[in-house]
Design a protein that fits this description.
Length: about 260
Amino acid sequence: MPTNFKRVVSNPIFGGTLVLMFAGLIVSLACAATQPVYIAATTWFMIVYLFLLAVALVWAVASSSLHRYRLALLTMIGVGLSLNVGHIGYYINATIGALQAMSAGLIFAEITLFFWVLVLGSGPGTYLAELTGTGSEMRSMGYGGNGGEHSMSRVSNYRHTVNSNTNSGGRGSIADYYTSELNQSTVSGKGAETTTSIVYKARALYPYDANPDDPNEVSITKEEVMLVIDDSGKWWQVKKEDGSVGIAPSNYLARISS
């Protein structure tokens, strides 16, 4: 996934907390520089560590990789929380104003770290995960939730269709898969209840970049209009104006009233 720093800016939750984090670290660094005699060696290490952690989070958000490096980031944040809280307690009781100001900056960083633990530790379907967009990323990789199960089911069906066509001498393709699945959704087996697929238009509320590891997904842009072929589950099967067919998260789409 290419790095796009607009994702950081467009996400007010991560954007706001990152501003708070960097502001706290800059204040702490500036105050420490004015009173280096009173600063412990581990404090310099901790400030640099927290800077690198914030940069790593910026990169993860910009590259839509939070779902891949979530556990590593949580571990790094846990270490940062432990280091930071000890230094806050040490400097907050100082009689020098610069050291007290530095502890205030570290408190800002501590609040941000605590919030990141809550966000990255929340699974798909939780309020914080959906608010920050990490839930849709994890669902796209199949990390729990109905959306993930829906996506993984489509991957399984796609592989089965391709393998069947290949074994029978035909060329398996994603077009074969979607044709097969659409037929299954519109025509039931003998003795089963008949269902009809209703096609309607939907508009994209937000942009979404398809996961490169999932061939079934399609990228969509904000305000883009497309046809919804299957709206069962949290991932909808859509057909774009360029003819491409794939799945997209339903919470990114809104039906257009006819």
